[in-house]
Every structure is written in C-alpha cells, then in structure tokens.
Specification:
Blueprint lengths: L1 H11 L4 E2 L2 H6 L14 E3 L4 H14 L3 E4 L16 E4 L6 E5 L4 E5 L4 H11 L3 E2 L11 H6 L7 H4 L6 E7 L5 E5 L29 E8 L1 E2 L3 E9 L5 H10 L5 E6 L10 E9 L2 H14 L1 H5 L3 E3 L4 H8 L5 H5 L7 E9 L4 H15 L3 E8 L4 E10 L4 H21 L2 E3 L3 H10 L2 H14 L13
Parallel strand pairs: 2-4, 3-4
Antiparallel strand pairs: 1-2, 5-6, 6-10, 7-11, 8-9, 8-10, 12-14, 12-15, 13-14, 13-17, 16-18, 16-19, 17-18
Helix pairs in contact: 1-3, 12-13, 13-14
The protein binds flavin-adenine dinucleotide.
The site of flavin-adenine dinucleotide has 34 residues, from β3, α5, β10 and α11.
C-alpha cells in the first residue's frame, strides 16, 4: 500500500494524493442515500499524461479505479465499491477552445458547469451551454457522460446528444480521440465516422477516463421570458406538452408538482422558457406558445399563471435552486431522486404512482418532468428529502426510491444514472444479448476489470 502511495506521489506530487482517513471518509460517499465505501487512495491528476500513468499503475497492480467529477450524481456512482483509487478530475478544468463560428467549446473533463457558464458570459456573451440544475461544481464531463439534461434540452436534447467528440484514456492506458477530432483539428461533430462515443456514454466510468470533450453551444439571447401553464388534470399533460414543444420556440420545458409552496399544491405547473433577439420576436414567440394551447384556454381547463417580474427572474435562473432548497424541507439537507427516462404519454400514471409512493412512505416529495427534444421523451423526476442525521428517515427515503425504480421499470421507463441495485433491476429486464454485448465490450476495453467495478454487473 505504501509503495502504491509513493508511486502516486511520483506521478502527481504529494499535495495531490492522499491515503489519509479524512479524504478517505469524504470520498467514500455522495450526498444521496447509498451506503459509503472508502477508497484506499484519492488522486488528483493535472494532465492526460498523468491520467495515463495512474491508469497504467492501476492496471499493473489490478487496483480498482473510479473516475469522479463533482461527485454530485446522488446515486452513489463514484463511490469505490471495491476500494482502490478515486481519480478526482477537478484539477483538469481548463477551457481549451471556443469556436464561435461552429458553436462549440472544448474543455477538460473536470471543468465545472459554473466555470464554463461564467467564462462564456465574460468572453463570448452571445453563446451559452445547456446547464443542468445541479450545483455549479458539477463537471461538464460527469454530466455529459451520464446523459444529463438541462436548460436547453427542449432545443437540443440530452447533453450527451450535444457531445461533438472526446479524448479518453482507455483502461489499458492508451489515449483515443473520438469524433471529428480524431482526424481533424476541429471538434465539430461525431459524424460521419463510426460513432465510438457510445462506448463511454451511460457506462458510469466503467470503460475509460474521459480527459477532454467538446460540446455544442447555443445562442445566448438578449431577450428572455418564461410562462407557466397550469393544469389540474395530469391526463391533459402529454398533449399540452407536445403542443408546446412542437412550436419549436421553447428552450426548456419543465413540469413540476410539489406540495410546497402552498399555492402550487394539487396543480401541475409547466414552465416554458424561451429567448429572442428582439422584443418583437419575444412577443411573437409568446403568442405562438399561447396559440398552441388555445383549445385548453378556451375550455378553461388550463391557463397561464400571472408572474410578477421578480418571480420571472427566479424561474429564468440557471441552474434553478429549487431542488437544493427542497433538500432542506426535512432539515438535515438530504435528497435523492429517481430520474426516469420515459415516453411523454406516461406522464399521468407516472405522476399518480409517484404520489402514491411518496404518500404511503411518508416522505417529503417534489415531482416533475424535464422535456427532452420536441417531446421525444422526458426525464420524470421523483425527488425525496430526508434528514441525513436520522438513519430511519434516510431508510424511508431509500425504500421510496427502490419502490419508484421498480414502478418505473414496470411502466416501461428506465431509471437514469441508476444506483447499483437499480442497475441490477435494469439488467434483469434487459435483452440478455444486449447485456452479453456490454460485457464483451467491457472485457475488451478493460481486460483487468479495474474500472469502477460493481457497476453494470448482474
Ligand atoms: C440539486 C441537484 C440538481 C440536479 N439537477 C440535475 C439536472 O437538472 N440535470 C442533470 O443532468 N443532472 C442533475 N443532477 C444530477 C447530477 O448532479 C448531475 O448530473 C451532475 O452534473 C453530475 O456531474 P458530476 O461531475 O457531479 O459527476 P459525478 O457524480 O462525479 O460522476 C458521475 C458518473 O460519471 C463518471 N465520471 C465522472 N467523470 C468522469 C470522467 N472524466 N471520465 C469517465 N467517467 C467519469 C463517474 O464515475 C460516475 O459514474 C442534479 C443534482 C443535484 C444535487
């Protein structure tokens, strides 16, 4: 153990490696409900070459290696289930290139959402990236690799769909480039080459360490507005959402259902955020949105909520802090959610069953759905708060999450960034040939089985 420590010190320097109980404690857990697993070492590389050296060391010694960004995924995916090294990527946070003409940015994988947001605001104020509602320290790499979604997902899909290319250190130590950057100085696209990005998306760090990536940028508009359409019958939601999405005006469509604040209880609120180059364009877009749901306005079964300007400002913020505030409902600051990727037509049963689980398990809840693409699918979230100082309360939330994962799979949805028990449930439902193919690919890429072991295993 001491020798490994000394080798790591040689690679990254003494300041950036630890085998001390404080760091081993901190890196053993994430903010969700999953039980802790301590690493033996925490190491923070600064360059791709350092990552290569660490990976080669892990390979030689058959030591588990777990890549980590912000560690905010909530479902415990960066806990080292079998010990070994946690590779904290936060020092690799450089913003390498912004291509204004082709609207993309190349970053190191540990660059945070907050850093990129601030950088673009300052140096390229007419461009923005799609921001998840995670705290700003969440990394671009960690979020894209788990198929995240955010404030431009109605316009641009999952964040993994906004990926143009990546650089990855394979589990055997070689560096590979994926996408146009493998054959060109430009990182403009994953087409037209065989799309190898899929070997690293959704794998929870089991197939390599991504060191750089390029993502698409979108116009940052000077005029921005948000409307909230309110209904009281979840059965109406799929058609309304489809209508709102198909006018192709919204950047973000986010439904939310929560017993707090009091005025929201019993309703389904659908936020529609959009931007424009001029005031006239903004007015036109607002009219198009209104027109799309006219039949519901005329039948008086839905309506736009009047929003005072200070409330609008809050609803236009990215990231939204509502979920972080919600975590404190139960004093003690914990929450975790099942994010279920599912078709929009399942909105009403997804909502009702979530409510049933939350009420029967007596957990504070917040439910909602981020619409992806032109209502091509949705990420339906079931967030449950708990007091992390009270183990019985944590266990209650955990049971509600387990019930929800099972319910989602039964309905035909798929839990996103699933905890390891939920991964096992997904594998049970999965076509066995698909799982066999996953295992074959993994064995080729990672012959020693060092990468985040315990994930995507039956
Ligand atoms: C309040 C709150 C709100 C949230 N809202 C959203 C939201 O709106 N949209 C959304 O998408 N998510 C949301 N999340 C979930 C999550 O925080 C984010 O998706 C976050 O961006 C994950 O990034 P991370 O850097 O924390 O990843 P981590 O948790 O560090 O890692 C996630 C996974 O990716 C792997 N990984 C990380 N970096 C690398 C790398 N360089 N190479 C290979 N594998 C790697 C890890 O091993 C792990 O399996 C929210 C979370 C919170 C706490």
């Amino acid at each position: 153990m001491e020798e490994i420590y000394r080798e790591l010190v040689k690679i990254v320097g003494e300041r950036f490696v630890s085998n001390q109980p404080e760091e081993r404690f901190l890196y053993s857990r994430d903010p969700g409900t999953m039980e802790p697993h301590a690493p033996d070492w925490v190491v923070m590389p600064n360059t791709t070459e350092e990552v290569q050296k660490i990976v080669r060391l892990a390979n030689r010694q058959k030591i588990p290696l777990v890549p980590m960004g912000g560690g905010l995924v909530l479902s415990g995916l960066s806990r080292p289930l079998q010990g070994g090294m946690v590779l904290d990527m936060k020092r690799m946070n450089r913003i390498l290139e912004v291509n204004e003409a082709s609207s993309y940015v190349v970053v190191e994988a540990g660059a945070s959402q907050g850093m990129l947001q601030a950088y673009l605001k300052k140096h390229h104020p007419r461009l923005k990236h799609s921001i998840p509602d995670a705290p700003p320290i969440a990394t671009i790499g960690g979020n894209v690799l788990i198929h995240g979604s955010g404030h431009l997902s109605a316009a641009g899909g999952f964040h993994s769909e906004m990926l143009n290319g990546l650089e990855v250190v394979l589990p055997t130590g070689e560096v590979a480039r994926i996408g146009s950057c493998s054959a060109s100085p430009y990182w403009f696209s994953r087409s037209p080459l065989p799309d190898l990005a899929g070997l690293f998306l959704g794998w929870h760090g089991t197939t390599g360490v991504v060191t750089k990536l390029a993502i698409k940028l979108f116009p940052a508009r000077p005029w921005n507005d948000v409307g909230i359409f309110v209904i009281e019958d979840p059965e109406l939601a799929p058609d309304i959402i489809r209508r709102l999405a198909r006018v192709q005006v919204a950047e973000d469509i986010l439904a939310w259902m929560s017993p707090k604040p009091d005025w929201a209880k019993g309703f389904q609120m659908i936020n529609i955020a959009y931007g424009a180059e001029t005031k006239a364009e903004l007015t036109l877009k607002r009219d198009l949105i209104r027109e799309s749901v006219r039949p519901y306005l005329e039948r008086k079964v839905g309506g736009f909520m009047p929003l005072p300007p200070d409330m609008k400002v809050r609803f236009l913020e990215a990231p939204q802090s509502t979920l972080a505030v919600f975590a404190d409902v139960n004093k003690g600051g914990g929450f975790e959610y099942v994010g279920a990727i599912m078709p929009v037509e399942l909105f009403a049963p997804a909502f009702r069953k979530g409510l049933e689980i939350a009420e029967s398990r007596k957990v504070p809840y917040s439910l909602g759905a981020r619409i992806v693409g032109l209502a091509h699918c949705m990420m339906f979230f079931y967030a449950y708060a708990f007091n992390r100082a009270d183990q019985a309360d944590v266990r209650r939330a955990q049971t509600a999450l387990e019930d929800t994962n099972a319910m989602v799979l039964e309905m035909g949805g798929i839990p996103w960034k699933a905890e390891t028990p939920a991964q096992k449930q997904i594998i049970k439902k999965m076509d066995p040939n698909t799982f066999a193919l996953m295992n074959r690919l993994r064995a080729v890429l990672d012959p020693q089985g060092i990468m985040n072991p315990g994930n995507w295993e039956a």
